[in-house]
Amino acid sequence: MKSKFxxxxxxSLNFGPQHPSTHGVLRLILTLIGExxxxxxxxxxxxxxxxxxxxxxxxxxxGLPYFDRLDYVSCMVQEHSYCxxxxxxxxxxxxxxxxxxxxxxxxxxxILNHLMAITTHALDVGALTPFLWAFEEREKLMNFYELISGxxxxxxxxxxxxxxxxxxxxxxxxxxxxxxxxxYRIKEMESLLTNNRIWKERLINIGSISKKQACSWGFSGPxxxxxxxxxxxxxxxxxxxxxYFNFSIPISFFGDSYDRYLLRIExxxxxxxxxxxxxxxxxxLQNQNIKNPLSNLFNSNNNMAELISHxxxxxxxxxxxxxxxxLGIEAPKGEMGVFLASNNNYKPYRCKVRxxxxxxxxxLNSMVQYHTIADAVVIIGTQDIVFGExxx
Length: 392
Known about the structure:
single chain, Cytochrome-c3 Hydrogenase, chain B, three-stranded antiparallel β-sheet, 49% helix
């Protein structure tokens, strides 16, 4: 179709879902004038698995592994959101040691996520080396997943009322060694990117958003904090034991792609700070035994009765009276929340997941408008989208 601009035509371009820069099965219908985008229509649902409806057919405990498969770059954090929601409905109190272990793995997961986000974004722009360096560090972090749970990705380590397995001194020793050397790896990545002329030209003033826009679109996480709003659920609505930790909320004010990159770098440094504090606290406890409060539901003096109770507990699950709750946590990509409704049953009556990537993707049209196709690649990368949580 011919446009009002002389010698220019408006035409549509199908971008994805097979394109590597779409960070998943995203299909964009771009309306262009030359190289300039005047409209971007995101098509989602190509990865849809009906997770929320599947959760309604499983017991509360059997629904847990589905959360590993939502944002599959940040597995344990997804488990965390589901567990604290169940604990609230079941009125389970979790002791401080379990809370610290959860915080440690939540921050390990945050670093895992940001390493992937920053370096795949750099790969989209044309920088290969940071990607290779970061994946060496990701392997070390995934070794911690394996050491504590036996799995490198879908760990199912967090459990309602506790965790799958107790920590040990070997784990803490390795984690402390990692926390000592990792800041130097961050500096190496920054040396390639932060002041790189090409990197800055591709990111500065690209995909800029204001604080008002970010709030109206329902942004959270680094995309919201890049506009100058210090909103982090670990600080403003503390959960677990985050209120006893000393850490900062990195913020910026320009709201462009470069700011979002800098924020994720700084958040990794703060995560290391949190990990050091958590490790020192656990070392002071001298590896005390931890116990899942739910185990009280099937404890008995008679071994056979205990075995039967144990079998029934894990096959039938536990019963919840009619109630509902929404709780959110600060996941690496933003606010990850779970609305859980029970109805006098062993299964959820309704389970609704609030995924940050879904809200960020809804604003893509406004963020890429009047930018070029190459800039759209940069903006998609800086949104840090994973389609397991967007499509659900």
